[in-house]
Specification:
The protein is an alpha/beta fold and 373 residues long. The protein folds into two domains: 161 residues, Rossmann fold; 199 residues, Dehydroquinate synthase-like, alpha domain (Up-down Bundle), CATH 1.20.1090.10. The chain is built from 15 helices and eight strands. It is globular, with a radius of gyration of 20 Å. The model has no long low-confidence stretch (mean pLDDT 95).
């Protein structure tokens, strides 16, 4: 069994001002963020740092073209540290910037992944409650020419520190809170069920699930679009806990099957995971009803105050109360695409499929897609 270790230092701050003072941000630092985050939280501090706004290079999830354009613009602008302030797109890009030598581009890094080393210090400030990427060494980039989302993975891509600032979540639109927290919940479930899990990683999965589901339950009971904000600190910690768990044990079929959907039809990551989650779990229940899945059902039943046999259906209903699940066809997916997606998953996502609760065949994966359609 591999060694469980925490590879990233984690700090908490009340606001970005205290964070900036603690790290003594200066002119040798590069802040990578979004303008809508920078203006209310950072601009008034008059920091001497260089600033890059991710959205000026493209919208949506990160692509190789987006990253290459940023690398080109930064070639003649020396900097020592990268301060990534944002959600999954900003964080994934920042990880790549931290290991890219001058002149290197995405294809170079994928072609020589075994030689990757850290070039710049990296501090990550997550502004959603879902990615968990602040504590992992993985960056998921859409390779446009190849038509696939692919992970870039290296120990050199761990951040030096993650800075958790609850207030950075409070301006999130409701749908971003909802889909990002759904993503974190799925991270916790998949890492818990993974055959690579260990007692230490399970502790982080379990705590993440309890914090997220408790916050969801209270949010639904209290009503109103802003009720979740009372639990922002717990949701942010839970996202980090889930990131620690899947950083060790891995994500699995839900993520593997969601990648082609997100890549081709531009469905946001957390939402594309939600589209597949229920049908993956039901396939697990069908293929191996007796096993670790029962422990998960008992845990969720305890959190949601229901019998273990009803736990997963209760969870699916709670998720719908937070953010109503669509069908794949609602996002333009057609029956004709499903065999193509299935082949794509089997060809490109073995890293994730190896973490499945049970092995899934071509027919199993195609059936999951069809039920989600």
């Amino acid at each position: 069994m591999k060694v469980f270790r925490l590879n990233v230092g984690i700090r908490e701050f009340p606001d970005f001002k205290e964070c900036a003072e603690a790290y003594a941000l200066d002119q040798e630092d590069l802040i990578l963020t979004n303008e809508y985050i920078y203006k209310p939280s950072i601009s008034g501090l008059d920091l001497p740092c260089m600033t890059v706004f991710q959205e000026k290079y493209g919208m949506g999830e990160p692509t190789d073209e987006m990253v290459d354009a940023i690398l080109t613009d930064l070639e003649k602008k020396p900097f020592r540290r990268i301060i990534a302030v944002g959600g999954g797109t900003v964080i994934d890009i920042a990880k790549v910037l931290s290991i890219a030598e001058p002149g290197e581009r995405m294809d170079d890094l994928y072609d020589h992944m075994e030689n990757i080393h850290k070039v710049h210090e990296l501090i990550i400030v997550p502004t959603t409650c879902g990615t968990g990427s602040e504590v992992t060494n993985l960056s998921i980039i859409s390779r446009i020419k190849k038509g696939v989302k692919q992970g870039l993975l290296s120990p050199a891509m761990y951040a030096d520190e993650a800075a958790l600032i609850k207030d950075m979540l409070l301006t999130l639109p409701y749908h971003v809170f909802a889909t990002s927290s759904i993503d974190a919940m799925i991270h916790a479930v998949e890492s818990y069920l993974s055959p690579n899990a260990c007692p230490m990683s399970e502790l982080f999965s379990e705590n993440a699930l309890e914090m997220i589901l408790t916050a969801w339950n209270r949010t639904v009971r209290e009503g109103g679009r802003d009720a979740w904000k009372k639990y922002a600190a717990d949701l942010l910690r839970a996202s980090t806990y889930a990131g620690i768990a899947f950083g060790y044990a891995g994500c699995a079929a839900v993520h593997a099957l969601s990648y082609p959907v997100g890549s081709v039809h531009h469905v946001p990551h957390g939402q594309s995971n939600q589209l597949l989650f229920m049908d993956v779990i039901r396939k697990y229940q069908e293929k191996k009803p007796i096993g670790k899945l029962n422990q998960l059902e008992e845990m969720i039943g305890n959190i949601l105050d229901t019998d273990p046999v009803f736990a997963m259906n209760t969870l699916f209903k709670l998720m719908d109360s937070i953010f109503k699940k669509d069908s794949l066809k609602d996002h333009g997916v057609t029956e004709k695409e499903l065999p193509v997606f299935t082949e794509n998953v089997l060809k490109t996502q073995q890293r994730l499929l190896n973490n499945n609760y049970v092995e899934l065949s071509y027919d199993d994966i195609l059936d999951i897609y069809r039920k989600a359609l």
